[in-house]
User: What shape does this take?
Amino acid sequence: MTLAKRIIPCLDVDNGRVVKGVQFVDIRDAGDPVEIARRYDEQGADELTFLDITASSDDRETMVHVVEEVAGQVFIPLTVGGGIRKVEDIRRMLNAGADKVAINTAAVFNPEFVKEAADKFGSQCIVVAIDAKQVGDDKWEIFTHGGRKPTGIDAVEWAIKMVDYGAGEILLTSMDRDGTKNGFDNALVSAVSTAVSVPVIASGGVGNLQHLAEGITKGHADAVLAASIFHFGEYTVGEAKAEMKKAGIEVRL
Amino acid sequence: MKTVAVMDYGMGNLHSVAKALEKVAEGAKVIVTSKAEEILAADRAVLPGVGAMRDCMAEMKRLGLDQLAKEFAQSKPLLGVCVGMQAMFEFSEENAGVECLGMLPGKVLAFDKSMTDPDSGERLKVPHMGWNRVHFAMEKHPMWQGIDDGAHFYFVHSYYVEPADPELIAGFSTYPHAFTAAVAKDNVFAVQFHPEKSQSAGLQLYANFLNWDGNN
Assistant: This one.
């Protein structure tokens, strides 16, 4: 197969600044999203995801400027998530230069929003982000508000429904694994990835390069997302790709 | 000064296309416009496009860009990108069937949703999304200059073009079968992938377009 599996560094942005400590040896400003995006681009990142974790919606305009800046300098696909609640939010981000938006909480409270968004902008730019926690054997439930609020919705069924509503991609985060560095919940990733027809991005739990490869080989994901292993300079995206290639995975080098 | 017009019919990726062109423009002027006189005054033009074909064609017609695109390509280089490429053909299967511009012979077909990877047996996802290799069918075409045969480009699409004349094919990819990734005829060059999202290979393609005078 010639379609490469993708590696996607994720940046959490709070009021225009990248948080969770990004460390490159020779970077001038470790919080500047534009500089960090450029660095990942140079390393061979296949896409970039920005999650806007700004608390106040008044400050969201800042994110639009960040996207504009990055899109003028980095020519790979950009996804923006966090606070995408209205059609107008999507339009602003796409016009600023984002290629896709990730809808999370708003989809849970108003699934029709996904339908409306896909109808207006096309499925190719609508990513539905799912935060799931294991609640039984091979059973996962959707949580909202950064994993704090249970919804009673089954993760696999929800993914199928969201694709039916027009999602063009699923960003799947295991709340159990997020921040643990124990690797993806590959049972969850595999359950969702084999259930839906659209690409699935595995997220949550990456602690080393082998974990990234396992998201593909064991989780059957189409792309893998990680934040901290790249931010802290432990590994470069290039090293991650070399590791994946060694595991027999097609990557863009 | 050279001017390149990005045809504006409100479809998503035109700003990204303009930004990528500006990056490589070196003295050329990039304008985003739906005004006929501005487009016709430009040296070359890009027909971008993302989203659903029905909406794209409806907006193009409303703004008169359908006739304009055909007229433009008679005398100057026109680059089609993604849905902009698909729109150049006669007919698309999307949205229960849409008549397109008919500048190039052939039709636009949907990827089969039950495709599997011949090696692993795994289901192939639709949309075809991500970086895939593009192999040249016209390796001497000036638009491929400085780009490696087999270079990765970024794709995101659920439909692909099937030219009635295989001679039109300038490049192809596989998913899992070969499909048309680029076509060329006279002043028209069109690509299914997104050069504006394909890093250095994509920027090279736009740079080539700014130096290409058509008719190859």
User: Anything to note?
Assistant: Chain B touches chain A at residues 12-13, 15-16, 19-20, 22-23, 50-52, 113, 117-120, 122-133, 152, 154, 156-158, 173-176, 194, 196-199, 202-203 (CB under 8 Å). The mean pLDDT of chain B is 95. The domain at 3-211 of chain B is CATH 3.40.50.880 (Rossmann fold). Chain B is about 25% helix and 30% strand.
